[in-house]
């Protein structure tokens, strides 16, 4: 039992910090109802390099199961931007790439897609934090003739 405890306490090192985030790899089928969490990790911070390594492991596992990975979707966090930069090999370019070669399927690309609901929430929060709309917290999104419109609804 003492050996077990030492292994998890780090043998005299300071206690590990409790996780503040969960990194989730979710699988969604584009033409099917497939929808499941593939892996999740309790974290305090994730670097772009760690995210790249873990993403490639997940993509490889899915491809080995016969599933075709077409795109990666995430918010605009710096570690996610670094992931896309590392996968596409565009380090230092002014304009980031929107795709990268799929290392597990020759001749196919992986596309990078922003999480649109998250972007809308970020826009709403920026308006809210600027006191532009007097703290209404009511974001309305509508589609007029296929042109998206986003506005803040007043109380």
Automatic annotation (TrEMBL):
InterPro entries: TNP-like_RNaseH_N
Source taxon at top rank: Eukaryota
Pfam family, one: TNP-like_RNaseH_N
Transposable element P transposase-like RNase H domain: residues covered: 13-87
Protein name: Transposable element P transposase-like RNase H domain-containing protein
Species per Swiss-Prot/TrEMBL record: Holothuria leucospilota
């Amino acid at each position: 039992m003492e050996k077990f405890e030492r292994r998890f306490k780090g043998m005299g090192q300071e206690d590990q910090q409790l996780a503040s985030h969960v990194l989730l790899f979710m699988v969604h089928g584009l033409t099917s109802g497939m929808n499941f969490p593939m892996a999740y990790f309790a974290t305090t911070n994730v670097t772009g390099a760690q995210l790249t390594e873990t993403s490639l492991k997940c993509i490889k596992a899915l491809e080995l199961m016969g599933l075709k990975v077409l795109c990666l979707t995430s918010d605009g966090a710096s570690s996610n931007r670094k992931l896309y930069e590392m996968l596409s090999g565009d380090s230092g370019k002014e304009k980031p790439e929107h795709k990268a070669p799929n290392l597990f399927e020759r001749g196919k690309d992986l596309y990078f897609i922003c999480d649109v609901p998250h972007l809308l929430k970020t826009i709403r929060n920026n308006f809210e934090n600027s006191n532009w709309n007097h703290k209404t917290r009511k974001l309305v999104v509508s589609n007029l003739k296929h042109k998206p419109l986003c506005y803040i609804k007043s109380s």
